[in-house]
Amino acid sequence: MLIESRRRAYLTAMQVVTWLPRTELPFAAPSRPELLETPEPPGVVPVVAEPVAKTVVEPVTPVERPKVDVPRPSLASTRTNAKPVEEVSSTPAPARVAPVPPPRFTLQLLRAGRCLLLVELPTGEPFQSRDPAYLLLKDMLRAAGLPDSPQIVGEPVRWPLLSRGTMDQGPEAARDFVQGFVLARLEDEPCVCLWLIGLPAVKFAGEADQDAFNRELQVEGLGSAWAVPGLELLMETPQRKAEVWQAMRRLMARWKESNE
Predict the structure, then answer these.
(1) Are residues 252 and 157 in the same domain?
(2) What is the CATH number of the domain that holds 254?
(3) Peptide bond before residue 160 is cis, with ω within 30 degrees of 0
(4) 3-state DSSP call for residue 45?
(5) pTM of the prediction?
(6) What is the number of structural domains in the chain?
């Protein structure tokens, strides 16, 4: 067994400062009373929150910065050769309507008895005494019981009137001109029936088309009119002459009664 002096020497070598034996040791020095007391566990000390001091933020006066003049390029230096970009419209551009070319025709106004004849000139030139178209016209007048030597009324109507210029020479202008020309001659001397021979005469004086051939038309301002195929067409298609003859028989009484 260790004596007290040797026991303390071991404890000192092990750096043990305080120790308590589990049982009473023989030949040991009496224990110190303060070492046998069990210290009470430290109590929980309530933590008192300290009041937080309010921080007042004072407005900061803005510091004016010194102005620095930045040199800007002049207007002349900013000009370039680039073209301005045009705004693209989402609306499609309207389609351009091609102008209608002016119609081309030549008409001659003739008088036979109480009838006026607006005749298409097949060649564009005035009738000659031996022209086949004029000989056919004379045959038609004899068959109708009218004088076969019609009188020429005025100069031929040639359309378009002008080869240049900005005047409107479309179909509507041609119709107004032809109707005005015939109306002026009717005011000089009325007629009982107006013969429209050829498609241009039917179209621009009678306001009709080729479907009106061999039919009687009532034209405002011009009165009663008879639509007849062109002389050139009758010569090329002789079978049309029979249709003209049948239509003529229905209308013949009108100008025969006036001649009597």
Answers:
(1) yes
(2) 3.40.470.10
(3) yes
(4) coil
(5) 0.62
(6) 2
